Amino acid sequence: MAGMMQEAPMIKITNLEKFYRTEEVETIALNKLSIEIATGEFVAIMGPSGCGKSTLLNILGMLDDPDAGSYVFNDIEVAHFTERKRADLRKHNIGFVFQSFNLIDELTVFENVELPLIYTGVASAERVKRVEEVLDKMQIMHRRNHYPQQLSGGQQQRVAIARAVVNKPKLILADEPTGNLDSSNGNDVMELLTDLNEQGTTIIMVTHSEHDARYSHRIIRLLDGQSVMENIMV
Amino acid sequence: MIKNYIKTAFRGLQKNKGFTAINILGLALGLATCLLIILYVVDELSYDHYNTKASRIYRVNEDLKLGDNSVKYAVCMPPLAKTLKTEYPYVENAVRLKNAGSWHVKKGNSNILENKLVYADPSLFDVFTLPMIEGSPSSALVEPNSIVITETTAKKYFNSLNVVGKTLVLNDNTPVKVTGVIRDIPRQSHFNFDFFLSMSTWADSRSNEWLRSDYNTYVLLKDPSDAKKLAASFPELLRKFSGAQMQADMNMSIEAFEKSGSFFRMNLIPLTDIHLKSSLSGELGPNGTTQYIYIFSAIAIFILLIACVNFMNLSTARSSNRAREVGVRKVLGSDRKHLIAQFLTESILVTFVATILAFIAALFLLPLFNQLSGKELAINSQSLVWIIPSLLFISLFVGAIAGAYPAFYLSAFQPVDVLKGKLAAGFKGGRLRSFLVIFQFSISIFLIIGTLVIYNQLNYIQTKNLGYNRNQVLIVQNVFELNKQAKVFKQEVKEIPGVMNATMTGFLPTSNWKSTAIYYKDATLDQKKSLFPQSWEVDEDYVKTLDMRMVAGRSFSKDMPTDSAGIILNESAAKFLGFNDVNKILYRGLGGKNTLDNVKQYHVVGIVKDFNFNSLRESIGPVVMTLAENTGALSIKVDTKNLPALLSQIKDRWKELSPNVQINYSFMDQEFDASYRTEQRTGQIFIVFTSLAIVIACLGLFGLAAYAAEQRTKEIGIRKVLGASVSAIAGMLSKDFIKLVFISILIATPAAWYLMNKWLQDFAYRINIQWWVLVLAGVAALFIAVITVSFQAIKAAIANPVDSLKNE
User: Fold this and answer.
1) Global confidence as pTM
2) Which of A54, A111, A119 sits opposite B333 (nearest CB)?
3) Interface of A with B in 34-73 (CB under 8 A)
4) What digits encode the pLDDT tens for the residues A31-50?
5) Where is the MacB-like periplasmic core domain (chain B) (predicted)?
């Protein structure tokens, strides 16, 4: 681990700011936040509701852009990228796992997992191979032709993870991945994420659960848009 | 990629069966209607195009003005065709047609009444494209007593096509030789005859008279651009020929004639314009009008627009359900382009399915539509050549139009927002959707008002007091078949118990048998004091049999021998002449030289109350009646208590007098109805289309209300928990839509009032649009909308609030 820290970090945000404005109130979601995350790290972000966790995750995932500050991803400054450029960078580098799975109801398990490969232009035969590979790994191969509604929550989240990793992203962003699961299924998901991390994928996870956070290497605690504490796990 | 789009689209549609059904059904209905109307319009527009030389063929029309009388004719002078061909090198050929009326044609021992006979010049087959199966086109119509018949007619009379050289017997006494068999004339032809007699058979065709018009005259130009040149030379031509004859016969120069405000003029109409744009005196058959083409095309476009609007409305309303999918796809790397393509694929898929359904529906509805429109439209290999590509085009076009808004709207969602559920609660695009609902309902209300006005006007025509009584009048046609026995027949019929009266003449208010003549107020035959009325030959029983009313003087009487020089005027004629009582004198030239001793003097014996004899579109013109034997028809006023027995007695009398010729009869009220068939058909078609438009609009509203209720489930739940009643909630949900219908009423009512008044202007006798028609249309639209919306609103309102709150 120590050796990796000498390389340039995968993610470096500096003085990042994000505001939400309504007609009367301006809410500060992120307040001059600076964080570095190295390649291969597993980081948990925690904090009370409204502390800016999700905002941070959206910006890290290039779904949203900051109002001020810098965001360097793999040595590229992306803070002011256009939507199109962000989308391009995103689809090749980042996988997402959501609390509510966000599978497309009209597509089967196989087709849901295949979708990111279609958008990155992978050829059909190669797609089948890679989807089957990842479904096998997630142990849901037998469900490949089912629709999301036919699966349990745990199975749905495994499909979602399969979909997140099928493109072999360098970074996985997980937003409370166990939030809708019982503890047994939740543990399975955490084991899967840990496995992926051990195989080299960087993981950033937002969570409310101290239990889940213990799977990570480092916990960043946010309050009112600022980092108040970092715990290094041993 | 496209496979994935289609797959997702297909499954999405399958999942939302209700939505899909409404969308496809609405579109299919719209497209089917559109297709039927297109067939109708194409049929109307294709008249006479079967002629390969159509672009070079023109008909010569004539405008005549005599004093204050004016007439527009579709016929010209007997020598015109020949003269045009010899005088103008750019006239390649010319042909005359003269309607020969009804004849009996002998088949075996019986005589069949045929009414599609015409005299034609030999050049007929050079000008018109009437392919000859048997015989020689160049010589078939040269010899007198030659006849060319159609394929169907040949089969009917000879059971064979190989009939050249055989003989047909006309009116039981005139043999004619069959010299050719042509293919049946296409239905889209402004004239439609089964028998073409050689013009040389008709002695009058050799007449050199330039002052009367009774031949439909067509010219074939070498180049269509010469039409202007030809038309420009007409005044000179008329001065030369008609002028010379006027000088000789009437001792009047054409300059003096024109100076008095009268004129002869001729003009050209392109052959292909005749069916839709010409309705003159002396047409070879009833023509159509462009008015209905415009109206129907507009309806087709409206209905299609309503269906498209449904699609857009329902798709965007459903957007919140699709928003999450858009978000996920964007997160996974899809850009906007892909999403737009995906949604467009989906809408084109829906239109495509709807198009197929529409095509099938149109196939099944076609016989019904034909019945309604009186056409024989067909979807066959010929029409499929243009129907299939145009359907594909329409489905792509409609799919793109209907899908464009949802595609751009949905693809613009920000993934962060939708994944957070920010959009789910909003019923977005509300303003556009309101606009579209208003648009749909404005059209529907417009169509409802239109239908009511047309219906009322037709009803008015049918019940209007026409100045005569058309009920219980039996018309026996062509009494001239009985020759001298005609009078005997009338006498015998009058004696049958149950017959109240009978009058013998072909001149009836409901018949097409018309004749005009010129009458003068003074014996010098001064043009300025002339009258150009309908001039009818009637008998003493005419006024009484038809229940007309005399406003002055009396009807003709057997007891008054001087009545043979008597004349009855209608009110219009009397007014035109400035006569307000009888004891006035009128003069009529007897043809040939207009000299004092060549003039007949008439004394006015009575003035009859105006009666309608033309379409009610036209005002009543002047009519004069003289006492003379005319055996065109015998109209019998009957007691209908035992009609079958009465009829068989009348038939028996006929048979005794003429065993070989069949009796031919009809009822006057039926003939009257027949003359308004076009209007009646239009009315019916209008009603059907209006209903369709309303059904489609309601389908959309129904779907929209369902989504509105769905979107507000949570709000409804909260309101119910706080104590709102079912009716309060149903009212709240309905209110928004009802408001839109009110706005539509405000927009549509004045527009419909204005345009329908314009339509009514075409009728000389017409209704005023009553206020209740407008109110009724508004109330009907409101009622339909309330029923549609409240169904959904009540369903939403009675749902258990716990369920709706748990959903969030």
Assistant:
1) 0.75
2) A119
3) 54, 58, 61, 63-64
4) 889 999 999 999 999 988 87
5) 20-234
